[in-house]
Design goal:
- There is one protein chain.
- The protein has three domains: 50-76 and 108-282, Thrombin, subunit H; 288-388, PDZ domain (Pdz3 Domain, Roll); 406-502, Pdz3 Domain (Roll).
- The protein is 24% helix and 31% strand.
- The chain has 14 helices and 28 strands.
- A seven-stranded antiparallel beta sheet has the order 5-4-1-2-3-7-6. Strands 22, 23, 24, 25, 26, 27 and 28 form a seven-stranded antiparallel beta sheet that branches.
- The longest helix is centred in the first third of the chain and has 24 residues, at 21-44.
- The termini are far apart.
């Protein structure tokens, strides 16, 4: 009698030829791998329907109606000026009186606007865009079942375009949860729910088209792009993943007619969540602050600084007594990493700093003088003054230098010593130090970068420059070192910023 293993017996019953034990083991492992991958493959397939998801989430999405009182001046109805006795004078006077213009006692007109929002707390907290409720005298939140409630503003953030409202309803309200927008991938399915053109409870579907979009809407742009139809009135409504979580707040559209062309933008949930938490707790956003003005690291700037990669944020100015100044960060440093997060470009740094808890001590990785170094900085709190103030270094008056004009052909410009006459001519402040540009050669390197007469070159290769001859010597030294570009710190009407100029082949002439 020949005994058989249970595995071989089962194989024979199933109508298959018996396999050696090793082959059965390999086959089993392959089956487990297929089973592990299968759910992900199914999840990536288009859903059969969004109906169940929409039915569950529609009660959490609200319509927002605002009213604003417009006075006569707001309407721009001013009486045109005509010569005395003109036949048009009486005509326009009658027209303006009829429409409320030209009459200070006319009844003010009330304008209405519509938007969207969503409930995040069963006690009546509603999230929307700030621009939906901006300048409103009265805000009304309308639920899916038609109930309407007056809303109070808990807090708003103009920079992130977010607002938090509060309504008082007799019953608990259906709330919706935020998801993790960092997990959202390009190509993921999403739905948008809102109030486009006043059409309440509209559901549209699409995919995530792109991430990290900067559309110049504010200093913290990091939008999700979607092709789910978003139109006027969708602003403030949720962008929802297949788990039923809010991954974005629909905010803007791109289109020649103001309607949907499949390019909509949503504030990521992970950017919105800390702002909304601050609005709920403090009534205003609280953001981290470093105290630097920055600019992009171009290929030319990277080459002039000895950076291998075009990355980081170049520090153009440091606010006196700010966190960066206290940490020893200087003009000309390139910030490559902040609190362990890579600064891939200048636009990423403000977002990273803003999201960092206030008073946290963090590592800041810098590129300075051809070397990497790390300093420790304590993050401050951003306020309106911090964003607009200009850092001014307390410099001692520079000694009188060479007052002659120097022409640097390789850069396509001429510079002169700052004199009272030139300060007066170009309206240069007394505390500005350096050499003044007096002439720019057409089609030269300086002209290509936008330098103009009256601009002041403060530094050359991150070292202060006090006279035209010193400027000339530093440029020549850069040439001898084999540099392809020279980095200038320039004070212009646009403020202080770094300008890389290519070094042409002609020698420096005086």
């Amino acid at each position: 009698m020949i005994s058989r293993s249970p595995v071989r017996a089962r194989a024979r019953i199933a109508g298959r030829s018996p396999l050696p034990p090793l082959q059965w083991l390999l086959a089993g492992l392959m089956m487990l791998a297929v089973m592990a991958v299968a759910p992900a493959s199914r999840a990536a397939q288009p859903p059969d329907s969004f109906a169940d998801l929409a039915e569950r989430l529609l009660p959490s999405v609200v319509n927002i109606s605002t009213t604003q009182t417009l006075k006569n001046a707001d309407r721009g109805l001013d009486m045109p000026q005509f010569p005395p006795g003109s036949p048009f004078e009486d005509f326009f006077k009658n027209f303006m009186d009829k429409h409320g213009g030209g009459n200070q006692d006319a009844q003010p007109r009330r304008a209405t606007a519509l938007g969207s929002g969503f409930i995040i707390d069963s006690n009546g907290l509603v999230v929307t865009n700030n621009h939906v409720i901006a300048d409103a005298d009265e805000i009304t939140v309308i639920l899916q079942d038609g109930q309407a409630f007056k809303a109070d503003i808990v807090g708003r953030d103009t920079k992130a375009d977010l607002a938090l409202l509060k309504i008082k309803a007799p019953n608990k309200l259906p709330a919706i949860n935020f998801g993790n927008s960092d997990e959202v991938r390009v190509g993921d399915w999403v739905i948008a729910i809102g109030n486009p053109f006043g059409m309440a409870g509209t559901v549209t579907a699409g995919i995530i088209s792109a991430r990290g979009r900067d559309i110049n809407a504010g200093p913290y742009d990091d939008f999700l792009q979607t092709d789910a139809a978003i139109n006027k009135g969708n602003s403030g409504g949720p962008l929802i993943n297949m788990k039923g979580e809010v991954v974005g707040i629909n905010t803007a559209i791109l289109g020649p007619t103001g309607g949907s062309v499949g390019i909509g933008f949503s504030i990521p949930a992970n950017l919105a969540k800390p702002v909304i938490a601050d609005l709920q707790k403090y009534g205003k956003p609280r953001r981290g602050w470093l105290g630097v003005k920055i600019q992009t690291v171009t290929d030319e700037i990277a080459e002039s600084l000895g950076l291998k990669d075009q990355r980081g944020a170049l520090v153009a100015e440091v606010t006196a007594a700010g966190p960066a100044a206290k940490a020893g960060i200087r003009k000309g440093d390139v910030i490559t990493k902040f609190d362990g997060k890579d600064v891939t470009d200048m636009h990423r740094l403000p977002r990273i700093v803003a999201e960092t808890p206030i008073n946290r001590e963090v590592d800041v990785n810098l590129w300075r003088d051809g070397k990497q170094l790390t300093v420790r900085a304590v993050v401050g709190e951003l306020n309106d003054v911090d964003e607009t103030e200009t850092a001014k270094d307390a410099e001692k008056p520079s000694p009188k230098g060479d007052s002659s004009q120097v022409t640097v052909s390789s850069l396509g410009l001429s510079v002169s010593q700052l004199s009272p006459a030139l300060r007066d001519r170009f309206d240069i402040a007394p505390d500005v130090k350096g050499v003044v540009v007096t002439d720019v050669k057409q089609n030269g390197a300086a002209a290509e970068k936008g330098l103009r007469p009256g601009d002041v070159i403060v530094e050359v290769l991150q070292e202060p420059v006090k006279s035209p001859s010193e400027f000339q010597a530093k440029v020549e030294a850069a040439r001898k070192e084999g540099r392809k570009a020279v980095l200038l710190l320039v004070q212009s009407e646009a403020g202080v910023h770094f300008v890389p100029l290519k070094l042409d082949t002609p020698p420096v002439k005086k």
